[in-house]
Design brief:
Elements: H1 2-21, E1 23-32, E2 38-49, H2 55-62, E3 65-74, E4 91-99, H3 107-122, E5 134-135, E6 151-158, H4 165-173, E7 181-186, E8 194-200, H5 210-213, E9 218-229, E10 235-247, H6 249-252, E11 260-261, H7 262-266, E12 282-286, E13 293-296, E14 302-304, E15 309-313, E16 323-326, E17 343-350, E18 356-365, E19 371-379, E20 383-396, E21 402-404, E22 412-417, E23 426-434, E24 438-448, E25 464-466, E26 470-473, E27 483-486, E28 490-492, H8 500-525, H9 533-537, H10 543-553
Parallel strand pairs: 1-12
Antiparallel strand pairs: 1-2, 2-10, 3-4, 3-9, 4-6, 5-6, 7-8, 9-10, 11-16, 12-15, 13-16, 14-15, 17-18, 18-24, 19-23, 19-26, 20-21, 20-24, 22-23, 25-28, 26-27
GO biological process, one term: attachment of GPI anchor to protein
Keywords: Membrane, Signal, Transmembrane, Transmembrane helix
InterPro entries: PIG-T (IPR007245)
Amino acid sequence: MRRLVAIIIAAWVSISASAAQSTQHETLHLHQRPSGRVTAHFAFAQSVAQSQAHALDDIARGFGIDEMALSFTQGTRCDSIATKVGCRPPGVVLWAWMRNNHSLSSVDTRWSALTNALAGTFCASLNFITPENSAEPQSSFTHSSVNSSLSSLRYASLPREITCTENLTPWSKLLPCSTKVNHLAHIKDRKMKPYCILGSKAGIASLFNAYAIYDADYHSMSVEVSRKCTSDTECTTEIRQDLVVALDPVRKGYQRNMDWSLQFLFGKEVAGSCPLNEIETNILVTLPKAEGFEFEGKVKPVYNDEKNAWVYSLELAKQFSMGVKYSDSKPDLSEKSKSTELIQIHRHLTGYGRERGGIKIRISNRDTKPRTVTLLEVLPWFIKLYMHTLQRTTYHITSQEVLSLSGEVVNQTLKYQPAIPRIRPSVIELTATLPGESITVFTFQFDRAFIKYTEHPPDANRGFDTGAAILTVHPASRTEKEYRLFSDVLLIALPTPDFSMPYNVITMSCTIVALYFGTVFNLIVKKLEGLDDSQLKKKWWMFWVKERSVLGKK
């Protein structure tokens, strides 16, 4: 009995010590638009100490990573809630800063090993990231905490990667309260009294329902890892996980109205606050109307003027559910999801046919001040660029007056890496200053390569997806932070051979070989023997001989 008590006390002390070294924070922001669509943004933040065990911390420490970001996205109708989260392009986007002086291997070797490690962690096809589709940007993804002279940057994307439950499950397993909690939690706001939560899910992660999430118009889950070291032995890994889901209660409900609740959207309720959180867990609700609605549920929210949202506070081990009911719940179907960003980017293809083409990138600056941006375009090797066709035109956003042309641009730096077939992609990295209230258009042309028939995907006539262009918006003042915007993903059709001809040749060849082989095999294997008269009389076809003899006698 004494030994059991000692084991329990030792376990409680170790958990309390680890809880004191790490922090956990989570928030949920529910934002509804006039069209009725509700965007749910789950935000989780962890701080993992050197002595603790975490899968992403082991990966960051093992491969010498200073910063890393990975996102899985499906859908294009994204309503951005926060600028620093933004809308991610479809597929997988991965970039990482890795230290140059790592003792294990070179940066390229560790980049390949990193993609394989993340592929196993998140059950994804990240092992398809190879040097053929990886880039080394120079001015994009910069960060004040990373020394570019001591670290190297690698970037890659897989626009055709499909996100499913196999990726959500390991992603949610990285959260401390998304799985069954079976330990003592040290809660500061409970007068240092230990509480035991046995066999239950807690926190906003209890709302995760694969049926609801993957029925959404848009869903994106991302992971950001930042490793900071004060010395060689004292390091802390900051892990941020975000899940953005765009739900449509108007489409989902039979009444076709804007009323919704957590139970209606996710099919679940929140199972109380996470016991590992050091600060209070809040749920923010932003509605399109200032009046004409009421909140359903036992707990009523408090309006916060600074956040412009109603705030719910979760309690430990207490079920929570809420809903919104409108007096006039007809959605505004004419409302369009227009981005409220001051800087916007759009990209589309130009030209026609499958031999030549072009790309047009349109960047809008709705701010009154000039802004400095960096455009990163990574295109596969089979898109042969002509850099002499690169042109830039800037005109006023309202008067359409031309402000500058390509030859008149001064504040512009261009870095270009030509592609090597089947080895590396084409990389264009352009830093320019956008005048206030202006639209800047970049255009260039390319040729479509004729690749080998074995390099085509199974649905060859569909085309090839190319990754999104990335626009890095640099801060205009010390109070601002750098953020990134992603353009649309392009679908480029290449010259495609007639795959029916190989099929016909294979079919005919196999048929001829089968007939020839069968005939020769029968002649070689079978033994031919003659039949005597007694055997001939037993055959059924001998009645023709008998009939013929009878007719001859007549």
